[in-house]
Design a protein that fits this description.
There is one protein chain. By secondary structure, the protein is mostly helical. It is extended, with a radius of gyration of 23 Å. The protein has eight helices and three strands, in the order ααβααββαααα. Strands 1-3-2 form a three-stranded antiparallel sheet.
Length: 194
């Protein structure tokens, strides 16, 4: 017989984090419940099963199950098994860089790639008016920007977490370095166009 573990009430700081993450989740386009489940798993020192999550957050078991399925589809939770217990336990990946990468990859797959496909198809259409030619040029500009961002994203994805953190820590130093390079090479804003 599986032992029923009693969920502990959340300390105030954890409760605030879980509540805030639910609020932010709804702004990021995910269900509030899913955001709160993820926040609980993120701060939990041990994997939790669906009953523990439901009890802690005072959600219905069915809402927790649906939320966990969504988090699994996003690859944001890992399934764990405990010896002698048939229930499934879940936990968030430990490495925050890995979490960021998974979120970014999924958003890219679900949102960016369909937009790129639509833009490519629209650019291949024959424009029949000046308005359409103008619209196509705007779409081409958008496609080019997205393409460059995705190239940069691919490069960042290949970095080790340590290198990525160093790069992010450099902040405005990178901009100053690029400005200096432009001044040295004459590619600055004041340089005449060829």
């Amino acid at each position: 017989m599986e032992a029923m573990t009693q969920a502990k009430p959340l300390p105030e700081l954890s409760r605030q984090f879980v509540s805030h993450f639910g609020e932010m989740g709804s702004r990021w386009g995910i269900n509030r419940t899913v955001g709160q489940i993820y926040a609980l798993l993120f701060i939990s020192s041990e994997p939790l099963n669906a009953d523990q999550i439901a009890e802690t957050l005072e959600f219905s078991r069915s809402n927790v199950s649906m939320g966990l399925k969504e988090l699994q589809a996003w690859r944001l939770v890992q399934l764990r098994h405990q010896p002698g217990d048939r229930r499934e336990y879940f936990q968030a990946p430990e490495d925050v860089w890995e979490i960021f990468k998974r979120l970014a990859e999924e958003r890219r797959r679900r949102e960016i790639e369909p937009t790129q496909s639509m833009l490519r198809a629209a650019m291949m259409e024959e424009a029949s008016s000046d308005e359409e030619r103008y619209a196509q040029q705007r779409m081409r500009d958008m496609h080019e920007l997205i393409d460059k961002l995705m190239s940069w994203f691919d490069d960042v994805q290949r970095l080790s977490p340590e290198t990525a953190m160093q790069l992010m820590g450099m902040g405005s130093a990178v901009t100053r370095l690029l400005d200096l390079k432009d001044k040295i090479t004459g590619r600055g804003k004041s340089a005449p166009e060829a």
